[in-house]
Amino acid sequence: MKETDVREEILLAARSLFRKYGLDKTTMSDIAKAAGKVKGGLYYYFPTKEDLFYAVGKLEMQEVFSFVSKSLALKLTAAEKLSTFFMLRCNKIRDTLDMYPVLLQESGKHLSLFRRLGEESISREVDIIKELLETGVENGEFFDMDADKRDHTARAIVLLMRGIDANHVIEGKINLRDLYAKTLTDIFLNGLKRAC
Length: 196
Description:
By secondary structure, this protein is mostly helical. It has 2 domains: about 45 residues, Arc Repressor Mutant, subunit A, CATH 1.10.10.60; about 140 residues, Tetracycline Repressor, domain 2, CATH 1.10.357.10. Helix 1 crosses helix 4, helix 5 runs antiparallel to helix 7 and helix 5 packs antiparallel against helix 9. The longest helix is centred in the middle third of the chain and has 28 residues.
């Protein structure tokens, strides 16, 4: 069996266990058993359980951003793409909360690990939004802005979304779907549209 196949089997087994039991209660022995491997073999691919969790997080991100890219490619305008991005992101936050309830309770214990994954996700989101802003400027949908302004705007949008996400996780009171679908999309798109 190829190393990439073995690694993927380990990742999928670990993801399933992390979803069910969280990071703290999942052991490398549990993962080895679920993957049908010997425990020592896991350490060849992942020196620590935290390294394995990080790899699972990266796998999740790759799957999400691949889906986002394919979905955005189906839209014609930058405004449609931006609106679609907001909705896909909202759905992903909701799905993550549903799939990883135990991990959310543990997130404070593993702050540096979650922060590392979060920073990488933020970087990818900023890049996506910058690209959408550039497309919108180039095709005349959005007002003219230079590269620095697109960068600052993209970062502001992502940080605003992250703040709303954090409030939702902590308080659980905000209906993300309504907020993203109606309020934020309208604010961003109306603020970015070129005056006729």
